[in-house]
Amino acid sequence: MTIDEIKNILRRKAVIFETGGFRPTNEPGESWIGAVKWKKAEDTLPKDKDGNEMLPLATIFTENLGVHPKEIENVKLINVYISENVYDHLMDLDGYFMVQVYDSLEGLEPCAWFNDQIKAFPLKAKEIVDDFPEWDGGMDPKMEDEIIKHEDEEDIDYYEDIHTEVYSMHKVGGYPAYIQPGNWDKRYEFIFQISSDEKARFNIVDSGSFYFFYSKELDNWEMQCDFF
Fold first, then answer.
1. pLDDT tens across 184-196, in order?
2. Using the 8-state DSSP alphabet, how is residue 53 labeled?
3. Do residues 92 and 115 lie in contact, with contact meaning Cβ atoms separated by under 8 Å?
4. Which of 5, 105, 129, 219 is the most exposed place for a label (fewest CB within 10 A)?
């Protein structure tokens, strides 16, 4: 297998987000960090496992993104919430986050749910075509062996000759931009990540990220966190 063949197998499209820098429209279709801006009339702020109201983390409209993971192909809006105490439960995040999905935009109404720990900004989407997995980030072991063979025989380096860009920002699709070695239950697929954001004054422990995975088979979301 050649290097170009390896690249073609591993390469994925994704959508990354630029934070702010433009005037918000506050219209449906505009994604946000630090706020949930649209909901159904019956929606209320979800509560964590301890009965405390969660904080809005992001609104992500997926319908018009150039990349739409097939596991959520019918989803048009994702609202994300985290517990105020999420950092006390990083070893077991179940019950301390909520991913709320909508397969229709009919009946949505504007709301102003802001996270008082984050400076809210609208997000501008940009499609990328060269997202690659981190070396210790869930890559197929057989592919790792193939790359190691090339590194040994041709004096190449994975992070110089194959994986040349790291997209450690808010992102939908592609691969989790792990900071530490990471992996996930393969019944789940990586869907999106929310990362530390200087402009939004949002720091996940130490410049870390939250990674969100969905299993269509189990109809369940999982969340991971890592940091420097």
1. 999 999 999 999 9
2. B
3. no
4. 219
